[in-house]
Amino acid sequence: MTSPMPAPPMPMVPGPVLRKPVGLGRTTAVLLGLVIATDLFAVWAGLGEIDVAGDIADGATGGGIVDRADRADTFYSAAGVLQTAALLATGIVYLCWVWRVRVNAEVFNPGGHSKSRGWTIGGWFCPVVNLWFPRRIVLDIWDSSAAWAKRPGHAIVNFWWALWIVSLLAGRVAARLSARAETAAEIRDAARQMLYADVLDIGAAVLAVLVVLKITRMQHRRALEGPVPAPALV
User: Fold this and answer.
1) What angle do CA 60, 64, 69 make, to 5 degrees?
2) CA-CA distance, 53 to 50, in Å (whole number)?
3) Is the pLDDT of residue 8 over 70?
4) pLDDT class of 151 with cuts at 50, 70, 90
5) Residue 187: CB partners within 8 Å, gap ≥ 6?
6) Which residues contact 140 (CB under 8 A, 6 or more apart)?
7) What are phi and psi of 87, to 5 degrees?
């Protein structure tokens, strides 16, 4: 009678590896600063658009107003292009950063995450869940990255996310108003709504910088602390 063959050993599955977040964190913060700069330019261009559209709505005519309108439209269009380019570049680098800090957070606290790692990226693109999954994932990263003896509150993350969502909604309303605008008064109203969205986006970007830098610093310090100390024996 032959003895059964032993089961082959299971292959070792590599776990998450801690990687430095500082470089990506700083790059993300710089690009968020670029987003803020383009938003500020858009606010300035929007004020010009509102001013000239208001004058036309009030009955202003002549070559001077035409030149002002052309100049305002040029700056306003350029602002939109710059905002889009800055947002795309920042979004790509941000996703690289948030993926890295999520993996690091799994090293610090493997059981501290309510969503699987794939949602770190996918949560931004899946309709409906993108309204709350990214926030939840960042909160889990935030808590898992905190020092052993101290966990900061969530206020800054919650304010950032609230401003981001409100700015997105305001931007969509402004885009619809702009697409339907035909008269000078309607163009002025659409520009006012977009100005409101830009101001909200500036606030969200400022808070995003603070969140990125805080998580990056917490992870750097946590890595320097080493593994959690074992409890003392009584």
Assistant:
1) 75
2) 5
3) no
4) confident
5) 49, 53, 178, 181
6) 105, 112, 113, 114, 115
7) -65, -40
Lookup result for tokens 């059964």: 4
Contact by Cβ (8 Å): 49, 187: yes
Count of residues for the chain? 234
142 is written with which tokens?
Answer: 């935030």
Quick check: pTM over 0.90? no
Residue 91: burial class (beta carbons within 10 Å; 0-12, 13-18, 19+): middle
Q: What b/e readout covers 55-83, taking b as 16+ CB neighbours within 10 angstroms?
A: bbeeeeeeeeeeebbeebbebbeebbebb
Query: What is the average pLDDT score of the chain?
Result: 89
Cα separation, 89 vs 102, whole angstroms: 20
Tokens, residue 211: 């969140």
Residue 195 tokens read as: 């100005």
